[in-house]
Design goal:
The chain has 242 residues and is an alpha/beta fold. Helices cover 39% and strands 24% of the residues.
């Protein structure tokens, strides 16, 4: 009996030496996306993010702790090492890259170029002597105003801009991607299309400079893997995200 118990004890200890514990990564984000123009798409973004991270954790055999935080202090708490990384659209400008390490773009949230479905032009520089619509926003005006031969035309809301675009009263529109995608894939599906992202504004995984680079590497490689095998498109289609 003693031999039997001893054998069980030895086997248990032996096996435990070969059981690799899953590494746990903690990621924080603002579930309300306070600083973004999502036009009621917050639930879609939350659903996509949670599904993506759940799939990543399962396939890569790691654990991910997703923490809901406040936009106001999400980076302050990152500096305090309360979590390993954040999901944010903080731009990877030089002064930010001095403090943080950035993943590749995860979700585009900036401006896009939208045109009529029959339009063959796919960039602002290809237009000349035409009106380009925009929703009154300094940044979108500045994007259009870079080109001398096109004329910015302001609108108060997307439906009025899209109706004018549909009726060819303007040649194109510079609008926020997320609400535009919602309209183009619903009310204006037969009439309009998105042809180009106009900036690099995107949600990325961000960690303190040169820290938790293994997490960023896993995140980037898994995104690319899903992109190549078509699972990313299915996931985006599920949550109606461009």
């Amino acid at each position: 009996m003693r031999r039997f118990l001893f054998s069980i004890l030895v086997i248990t200890i032996f096996n435990s030496c070969f059981i690799k514990e899953k590494k746990t990564f903690s990621i924080c984000y603002d579930p309300y996306f306070t600083n973004l123009v999502l036009d009621g798409q917050e639930k879609n973004f939350n659903g996509f993010i949670k599904d993506f991270l759940l799939s990543l954790a399962k396939d890569e055999k790691i654990e991910i702790k997703l923490i809901e935080g406040s936009f106001d202090n999400i980076f302050q708490n990152l500096q305090k090492n309360e979590y390993m990384a954040v999901l944010s659209n903080l731009q990877p400008l030089n002064f930010n890259q001095a403090k943080y390490s950035f993943s590749n773009p995860f979700l585009n949230v900036g401006f896009c170029l939208v045109v009529n479905k029959g339009q063959k032009k796919t960039s602002l520089e290809s237009f000349s002597n035409v009106n380009i619509g925009y929703i009154e926003s300094e940044k979108s005006f500045n994007i259009i105003n870079q080109y001398e031969n096109i004329f910015p035309k302001p609108y108060l809301n997307l439906p009025s801009l899209f109706n004018d675009l549909k009726n060819e009263n303007i040649a194109a529109g510079v609008t926020f991607l997320v609400p535009t995608y919602k309209y183009v894939n619903d009310l204006y599906y037969d009439d309009l299309k998105i042809v180009k992202f106009l900036d690099n504004d995107a949600i990325r995984l961000i960690a303190l400079k040169d820290q938790n680079l293994d997490l960023i590497k896993i995140f980037n490689s898994y995104y690319k893997k899903l992109e190549e095998n078509g699972r990313l498109k299915k996931l985006k289609d599920k949550w109606q995200i461009e």
